[in-house]
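We were asked to recover a plausible sequence for a given structure. The inputs and outputs are reproduced exactly as logged, with field labels preserved.

PROBLEM: sequence recovery
POSITIONS: 176
GIVEN STRUCTURE:
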């Protein structure tokens, strides 16, 4: 067990889950979002968030009845980010989660993949609205972990024609 793992294991599981969500998120989050993503009861989540604000780990922004939470830019947070850093391979996770979707024949990485973002072309026949909704839900799940996937669905004929027209020139890598 590494030093990081030992320190993380000494923390309360609920507090660790909340920190993991907030420190790996790109966005400010509402209490309800944090509670849902961390699987911590909302009352417990509220109490822990108040404690983290008091410790100057999080900032709370309020207007009218809305409150959002995000990490403060300081040394404590930098240490915690290092401790709870979750490197996510969003493309790999996307490929795993879309394996069961039978209508997708090919997945092509279009352009260069960045640290936290990738553009994918999904090639297949019969990719209907229900399938697109499943794919969008998968993308949302991955985005919640800090990796954004943009995708476009095409039939094989559409893709072939667009390549002929030069619309998909540049770097392409077939993933599936």
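RECOVERED SEQUENCE:
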């Amino acid at each position: 067990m590494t030093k990081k793992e030992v320190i993380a294991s000494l923390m309360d599981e609920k507090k660790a889950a909340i920190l993991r969500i907030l420190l790996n998120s790109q966005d400010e989050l509402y209490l309800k979002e944090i509670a849902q993503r961390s699987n911590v009861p909302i009352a417990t989540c509220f109490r822990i968030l108040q404690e983290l604000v008091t410790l100057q780990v999080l900032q709370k922004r309020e207007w009218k009845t809305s409150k959002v939470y995000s990490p403060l830019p300081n040394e404590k947070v930098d240490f915690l980010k290092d401790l709870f850093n979750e490197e996510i391979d969003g493309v790999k996770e996307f490929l795993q989660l879309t394996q069961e979707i039978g209508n997708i024949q090919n997945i092509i990485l279009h352009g260069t993949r960045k640290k936290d973002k990738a553009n994918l072309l999904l090639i297949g026949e019969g990719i209907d609205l229900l399938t697109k909704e499943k794919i969008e839900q998968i993308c949302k799940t991955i985005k919640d972990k800090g990796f954004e996937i943009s995708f476009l669905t095409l039939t094989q004929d559409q893709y072939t024609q667009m390549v002929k027209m030069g619309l998909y020139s540049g770097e392409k890598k077939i993933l599936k």
